[in-house]
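TICKET: design request
STATUS: open
ATTACHED STRUCTURE:
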């Protein structure tokens, strides 16, 4: 398990790494992208997703040589089992790849460190707005060098909420009823960007079915601000599998759990 001195060093190096990857992403996205589909026509991967993950992985191997590193595009299947011991870095090299391809905007780069299963460091880079949201568990949450304030704990009917479009159409956890009871509904298409809106208090909550790399970083930052990160029906998140995640203020969670339980 890493000590504070080591974590401080990781934090400094990883922030530099994320600015580097962000700059490279902006340069590369102006050249033609190589786009492939994965499981379905809206599940895309580009050359930039792959290049970002490769660069992050190789730099992390220098920064924390004994850690395991998992990433969405290359290393997940080979590296994650049910064993959470030691340091695990979790990479989402572009979050919101569909936005990246269609809009060249509204996407993020995300990275997290879990130590013995404990969410410890989290980073969400809002590339086009050039802001890095980050937290070290127990040491506050920041945007760049500025400390983030805890969001106001408002109820669902006073809050805007974001729900993934497919989830809303399927209505598995009565998401349509949740949307009706909120002050308004928003959809941005990147878990990282949606979580940033919750961190800033612009949304009262966000829910989507998410894979480990979609929520790993946001969880560290959100929990550091006193926000709740659980499943939409009030269960703990399993770090290693897909969960229908709810990131929200305490009051929004209580209001939503009354609907889903
Ligand atoms: C996706 C985005 C999207 C969310 C999906 C994620 P990706 O990430 O965050 O907003 O609804 O569940 O998979 O694939 O673009 O990294
Ligand atoms: Ca993807
Ligand atoms: Ca993602
Ligand atoms: Ca991704």
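STATUS: resolved
RESOLUTION: sequence designed for all positions
ATTACHED SEQUENCE:
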């Amino acid at each position: 398990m890493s000590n504070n001195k080591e974590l401080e060093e990781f934090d400094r190096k990883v922030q530099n790494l994320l600015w580097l990857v962000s700059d490279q992403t902006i340069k590369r996205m102006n050249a033609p992208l190589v786009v492939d589909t994965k499981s379905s026509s809206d599940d895309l991967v580009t050359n930039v997703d792959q290049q970002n993950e490769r660069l992050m992985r190789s730099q992390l191997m220098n920064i924390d040589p004994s850690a395991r590193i998992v990433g969405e595009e290359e290393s997940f299947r080979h590296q994650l089992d049910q064993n959470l011991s030691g340091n695990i870095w979790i990479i989402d090299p572009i979050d919101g790849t569909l936005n990246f391809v269609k809009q060249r905007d509204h996407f993020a780069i995300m990275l997290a460190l879990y130590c013995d299963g404990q969410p410890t460091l989290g980073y969400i880079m809002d590339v086009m707005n050039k802001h890095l949201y980050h937290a070290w568990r127990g040491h506050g949450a920041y945007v760049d060098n500025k400390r983030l304030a805890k969001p106001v704990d408002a109820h669902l009917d006073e809050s805007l909420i974001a729900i993934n479009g497919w989830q809303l159409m399927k209505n598995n956890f009565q998401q349509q009823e949740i949307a009706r009871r909120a002050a308004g509904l928003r959809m941005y298409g990147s878990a990282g960007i949606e979580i940033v809106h919750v961190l800033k208090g612009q949304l009262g909550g966000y829910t989507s079915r998410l894979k480990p790399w979609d929520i790993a970083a946001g969880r560290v930052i959100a929990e550091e601000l006193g926000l709740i990160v659980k499943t939409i029906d009030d269960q703990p998140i399993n770090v290693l599998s897909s969960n229908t995640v709810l990131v929200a203020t305490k009051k929004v969670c209580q209001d939503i759990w009354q609907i889903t339980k």
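CLOSING REMARK: The two ends are 37 Å apart (CA to CA). The longest strand covers residues 87-95.
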